[in-house]
């Protein structure tokens, strides 16, 4: 039971990270594709929306990694060993993206701002692809066991460089672009900017649906066992049906310009995609042969981890709520700033 709770914590952390940090990546993607006479205003909106919270959102990725290496050391060792190349590139992308975003924010010279903006946007484009590729590789089942004697140097490439993991990477890219565009319709105060991102949100919703179909087609040829896992129970089918309803609800709300409802449906849709993947993985952490029960640390370690996690959450969750509340991400617009007087 403790093993399952720890695995669920990893899924929850990844879910929240995609909804928050993933949308930040999506903002960088739309920064790259800002165009027209409103391009600079679009970039300013993205920068204003991401600025106060982007660093805090990474705490959920850190939480997922900490729970993984503490609760499931063999799974952590296997993933970090054979997927170290995409993981290293992803971490470099996170660092380059954050640094470029900060440097651009304080840079006054236009040409330097443009250069830092290119680094920020390019890293925002590539990092979610790498994250999705890693998740796709874990589900793909080509990661050899650490004890196997048959793996060679090529195993560090063939374990993740394939059509299926890369398609999952593009699927992740579509998700973060969709989330960001939907969120930005709520962030925009000017009607013309809101319309810009409404069109982007609708287009990325269609692209997301196309990528979902592509993932299923590629899985049929490269990993048919994944299709079996996705449809093995009646609950699986119910989850897929609700996901489809949420997708249609998001598109309909965007069409009717009900942006708050569009955001709600988008959050539900993306969350159910993540949980569909998590349920299809069960009971494996790394397919095809490492289950969460086999990889689990001793019971006392799991108990202490859950106690520490619960205690930390008492500080983390209210702090994040306060941060988001101050900057108007939840509960209404931010409080107006008071003018300083001599």
List its traits.
disordered C terminus; 79% helix; 15 helices; globular
What features would you describe in this structure?
The protein has 342 residues and is an all-alpha fold. The chain is built from 15 helices and two strands. Strands 1-2 form a two-stranded antiparallel ribbon. The chain is globular, with a radius of gyration of 21 Å. The protein starts with a helix and ends in a 16-residue tail after the last helix.
Quick description:
By secondary structure, this protein is an all-alpha fold.
Ordered list of secondary-structure elements with their pairings:
Elements: H1 2-32, H2 39-50, H3 54-57, H4 59-71, H5 73-82, H6 84-106, H7 110-140, H8 155-158, H9 163-187, H10 191-222, H11 224-230, H12 234-255, H13 259-281, E1 284-286, E2 290-291, H14 292-295, H15 299-326
Antiparallel strand pairs: 1-2
Helix pairs in contact: 1-2, 1-4, 1-7, 1-9, 1-13, 4-5, 6-7, 7-9, 9-10, 9-13, 10-11, 10-12, 12-13
Count of beta strands: 2
Beta fraction = under 5%
N- to C-terminal distance: 61 Å
Strand/helix succession:
HHHHHHHHHHHHHEEHH
Give the % helix: over 70%
The largest β sheet comes out as: 2 strands, antiparallel
What low-confidence regions span 5 or more consecutive residues with pLDDT below 50?
Answer: 334-342
Return Rg in Å: 21 Å
Tally of domains:
1
């Amino acid at each position: 039971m403790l093993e399952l709770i720890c695995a669920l914590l990893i899924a929850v952390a990844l879910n929240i990270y995609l909804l928050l940090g993933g949308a930040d990546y999506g903002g960088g993607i739309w920064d790259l594709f800002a165009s027209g006479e409103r391009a600079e205003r679009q970039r300013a909106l993205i920068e204003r929306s991401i600025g106060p919270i982007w660093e805090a959102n990474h705490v959920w990725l850190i939480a997922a990694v900490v729970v993984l290496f503490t609760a499931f050391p063999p799974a952590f060792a296997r993933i970090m060993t054979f997927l170290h190349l995409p993981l290293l590139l992803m971490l470099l992308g996170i660092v380059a993206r954050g640094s470029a975003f900060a440097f651009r924010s304080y840079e006054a010279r236009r040409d330097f701002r443009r250069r830092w903006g290119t680094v920020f946007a390019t890293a925002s484009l590539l990092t979610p692809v790498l994250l999705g590729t890693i998740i796709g590789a874990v589900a793909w089942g080509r990661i050899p066991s650490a004890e196997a004697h048959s793996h060679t140097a090529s195993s560090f490439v063939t374990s993740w460089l394939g059509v299926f993991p890369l398609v999952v990477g593009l699927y992740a890219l579509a998700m973060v672009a969709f989330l960001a565009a939907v969120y930005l319709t709520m962030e925009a105060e000017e009607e013309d900017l809101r319309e810009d991102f409404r069109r982007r949100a609708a287009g990325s919703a269609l692209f997301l649906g196309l990528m979902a179909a592509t993932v299923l087609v590629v899985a049929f040829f490269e990993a048919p066992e994944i299709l079996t896992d996705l449809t093995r129970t009646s609950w699986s089918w119910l989850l897929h049906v609700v996901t489809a309803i949420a997708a249609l609800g998001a598109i309909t709300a965007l069409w009717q310009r009900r942006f708050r409802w569009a955001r709600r449906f988008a959050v539900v849709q993306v969350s159910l995609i993540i949980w569909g993947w998590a349920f299809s993985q069960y009971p494996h952490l790394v397919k095809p042969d490492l289950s969460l029960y086999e990889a689990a640390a001793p019971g006392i370690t799991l108990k202490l981890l859950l106690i520490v996690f619960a205690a930390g959450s008492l500080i983390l969750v209210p702090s994040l709520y306060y941060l988001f509340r101050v900057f108007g991400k939840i509960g209404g617009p931010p409080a107006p700033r008071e003018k300083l007087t001599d």
